[in-house]
Automatic annotation (TrEMBL):
<keyword id="KW-0256">Endoplasmic reticulum</keyword>
<protein>
    <recommendedName>
        <fullName>Protein transport protein SEC22</fullName>
    </recommendedName>
</protein>
<keyword id="KW-0175">Coiled coil</keyword>
<feature type="domain" description="Longin">
    <location>
        <begin position="6"/>
        <end position="122"/>
    </location>
</feature>
<keyword id="KW-0653">Protein transport</keyword>
<feature type="transmembrane region" description="Helical">
    <location>
        <begin position="199"/>
        <end position="217"/>
    </location>
</feature>
<dbReference type="GO" id="GO:0005484">
    <property type="term" value="F:SNAP receptor activity"/>
</dbReference>
<dbReference type="InterPro" id="IPR010908">
    <property type="entry name" value="Longin_dom"/>
</dbReference>
<dbReference type="InterPro" id="IPR011012">
    <property type="entry name" value="Longin-like_dom_sf"/>
</dbReference>
<dbReference type="InterPro" id="IPR044565">
    <property type="entry name" value="Sec22"/>
</dbReference>
<dbReference type="Pfam" id="PF00957">
    <property type="entry name" value="Synaptobrevin"/>
</dbReference>
<dbReference type="GO" id="GO:0005789">
    <property type="term" value="C:endoplasmic reticulum membrane"/>
</dbReference>
<keyword id="KW-0472">Membrane</keyword>
<dbReference type="InterPro" id="IPR042855">
    <property type="entry name" value="V_SNARE_CC"/>
</dbReference>
<dbReference type="GO" id="GO:0006890">
    <property type="term" value="P:retrograde vesicle-mediated transport, Golgi to endoplasmic reticulum"/>
</dbReference>
<keyword id="KW-0813">Transport</keyword>
<keyword id="KW-0812">Transmembrane</keyword>
Length: 218
């Protein structure tokens, strides 16, 4: 279940819009929502474009737009599918950027929640994604799901209490990609070596026979 959503400007960590919660929240969820402000402050242009941060039974999922000036964040139950969460954020990003040009949120004197009129679209979209078992929703979502297998996951304690930074997520992701490439090359080399060991003697024998025939008759 998607519990809370925030759209913010990276510069100054200014909250532009957030979902309005009308229901009573339990203490843990309320604490997680309050910590979202701290998570936003750690985001900048050097942060990994997408990431997940675990906090108890909840997870923060965030996505930074291509311009590197907006962050879209949602808080979900740990059991909520991560792919759906990022597809939800992608929908919000597309609609927000279609409705608001950079001039609308780049002013240095802009007040917090200045674009909270976008909450109506957030609520409508959240309802679409809430019931992941509804056939009419899954038909729509299955065609839009993004591959998020490379999205890095951190723990909220590492981020907020141990001084870790979201920039390290990018470093970790880069190292994983480099290691993956290195192991892939090693696997190809090993496969070639196995093929040579398995079929090399037969190839060498065939070459000797062909050479002998060529030398004998030509």
């Amino acid at each position: 279940m998607i519990e809370h959503t925030v759209v913010s400007r990276l510069e100054g960590s200014l909250v532009l819009c957030a979902s309005l919660e009308t229901r009573e929240l339990d203490a843990e969820l309320n604490d997680v929502i309050n910590k979202a402000k701290l998570v936003q402050r750690r985001l900048d242009r050097n942060s990994e474009p997408q990431g997940s941060i675990e906090s108890g039974k909840y997870t923060y999922h965030y996505s930074i737009n291509d311009r590197g000036d907006l962050a879209f964040l949602c808080i979900c139950n740990r059991a909520y599918p991560r792919k759906l969460a990022f597809t939800y954020l992608s929908d919000l990003q597309t609609e927000f950027e279609n409705n608001y040009k950079p001039d609308a949120y780049s002013s240095p004197i802009l007040r917090p929640y200045a674009l909270n009129g976008f909450d109506k679209y957030i609520q409508q979209t959240k309802e679409t994604y809430q019931n992941t078992r509804a056939t009419q929703n899954l038909d729509k979502l299955n065609s839009e799901l993004k591959d998020v297998t490379k999205v890095m996951t951190k723990n909220i304690e590492d981020l907020l209490y141990r001084g870790d930074s979201l920039e390290r997520m990018g470093d970790m992701s880069s190292r994983l990609r480099e290691d993956s490439l290195k192991y892939r090359k090693a696997a190809v080399r090993i496969n070639w070596e196995l093929l040579l060991k398995q079929y090399g003697p037969f190839g060498a024998l065939a070459f000797i026979i062909i050479f002998f025939i060529w030398w004998r008759f030509l």
